[in-house]
Write a structure and sequence with these properties.
It holds the Pfam family LigB. The structure is a single chain. The protein is α/β, with parallel strands linked by helices. It is built from 9 helices and 10 strands. α4 runs parallel beside α9.
Length: 259
């Protein structure tokens, strides 16, 4: 891939679920965010909803989406997002990650899951930018940070790296009435402060250093993509800003840009 004219930012976003499309505010926030970004040549997506080790590369051609949810109205299963595949990006990712003991394999029929296509449908609704999804090979923050470091050169080639999770993700605190549990608000404020202070060590150790760390995240999966973004944005940590904040369905939807 040829060098880009400018370094593309790296993002961590809270992706929401299929009903995000019907929210009166959130789709507009995502659309406004993407409108202010340089147009990427391709998108590398890491979603909380694909854990697989060794690291796997998803489809490099357009294949059906993965509707990895249940119990929703039928129209959510009719959504399409036929983004082009990104075979050249896949080749570059393989080269960046090639090292003794590092295995990368292909899952050519693995389409984009809802952690990928739900936000992308709002940010890039024309589905005309090539997208490659890779798996989360671990939930260990430091290892994910190192993975992000290795992927960082992609930003100079016009690739938008997106870690897609949810800033808090305890479904026991999910609320159709949008009631916010105190633990959710406390964790969100702690995370904001840690990001602003560039306190990566605290974020690595969020289970014990954050108030209600394990209440906010009973599993690390939805926080884990943040660490890939942090690694990819290591040189730009001082530029971080929360582009989207607040709460939806009782969960913190904080979403952050670096660069």
């Amino acid at each position: 891939m040829a060098p880009a004219t400018e370094r593309i930012p790296a993002l961590y976003l809270s992706h929401g679920g299929p009903p995000l499309a019907d929210d009166p505010v959130w789709p507009g926030q995502l659309a406004a965010w993407s409108a202010g970004l340089p147009r990427p040549r391709a998108i590398l997506m890491v979603s909380a909803h694909w854990e697989e080790a060794p690291l796997a590369l998803g489809a490099t051609a357009t294949v059906p989406l993965v509707y990895d949810f249940s119990g929703f109205p039928e129209h959510y299963y009719q959504v399409t997002y036929p983004a082009p595949g990104a075979p050249e990006l896949a080749k570059t990712v393989r080269k960046l990650l090639h090292a003794p003991g590092n295995l990368v394999h292909d899952v050519p029929d693995r389409g984009l899951d809802h952690g990928a296509y739900v936000p992308l449908a709002e940010m890039y609704p024309d589905a005309d930018i090539p997208v490659l999804q890779i798996s989360l090979p671990t939930l260990e923050p430091l290892r994910l940070f190192e993975l992000g470091r290795r992927l960082a050169p992609l930003r100079d080639e016009g690739v938008l790296i997106i870690g897609s999770g949810f800033f808090t993700h305890n479904l026991q605190m999910f609320s159709l009435q949008h009631e916010v549990h105190a633990a959710t608000a406390e964790f969100d404020d702690w995370g904001r402060c840690a990001l602003e202070a560039q306190d990566i060590d605290a974020l690595f150790d969020f289970e014990v250093k954050a108030p209600a760390g394990r209440l906010a995240h009973p599993r690390t999966d939805h926080f884990a993509p943040l660490f890939i973004t942090l690694g990819a944005a290591e040189e730009d940590l001082g530029t971080q800003r929360s582009v989207i904040d607040g709460f939806c369905w009782g969960l913190a939807k904080r979403s952050v840009q670096f660069g």
